[in-house]
């Protein structure tokens, strides 16, 4: 019998990310929690639309709960789901603090349930391409990694993301993806220096940041601005043999919003005008690189295997802890105006 998943929250993340990916990975979705029934009924058909998370968690026909509610609700919703004996996927960020991540990890261990974090950008086309180039040694020894996610959104909205609440702001939103990708490629930094700021008029949350991280001779630079009309390069990776330059965003989000299903054969592909360039150091020759296919579906396929076969979850709470730990250090660095040395992280059960 197919595993049964319930979704808490059916906004952009619930409707366009979790629901299509869950279905394509073989999950059945009997119920969702949302205040707007129409989108859920239109997409899922015969689905129970519930008003509260408690109603969903009380049901016996739910094996996994995907939490796509606003970030300030992630911790209470995840804790309640684990206490109710459900396996849990939480959209990023898992929690605003490492202390809360540890609490959720402890709850998951106590309840003997799987807990994972939806860091879907690990399966972006561009990131998978960079990972492959590094693994193949085509760049040589990496000296610097630069990743940006700039946008032009100068107006503050009345959406929950722009409210001054724990877990909100661009550092927790897009920053979690950039940090997670850097940690996946290179491991934990030894130190960091950060400038975290708000630039938009009447902004109540962080809407920009610059983080410099070091690990031996390697430098990692991560940044986001919401006041940038020209996105420029998303990635610039420099090594002893070559550099890789990449502009443009992975296409999966736009494809899902356009109604393309994640199991269609062309899903996750990139237009040729966005393909990255490998610049060879000795000759300066520029080589266009055929990208890897993006595949967010891998996340929920691995989550299904974790539940059915007791395999590791695709993104562990321990990995989420490491990401939030960097965010906490970045906030401290920016507030104090100094470099923060990062000691080895405390062990968690899921490491």
UniProtKB/TrEMBL annotation:
Q: Where is the Gfo/Idh/MocA-like oxidoreductase N-terminal domain?
A: 3-117
User: Zinc among the record's keywords?
Assistant: no
Coiled-coil blocks = none
Which keywords does this Swiss-Prot/TrEMBL entry list?
Oxidoreductase
Per its UniProt record, what InterPro entries does this chain match? Gfo/Idh/MocA-like_OxRdtase_C, Gfo/Idh/MocA-like_OxRdtase_N, Gfo/Idh/MocA_oxidoreduct, NAD(P)-bd_dom_sf
Family classification: Belongs to the Gfo/Idh/MocA family.
Official protein name in the record: Oxidoreductase
Native organism:
Steroidobacter agaridevorans
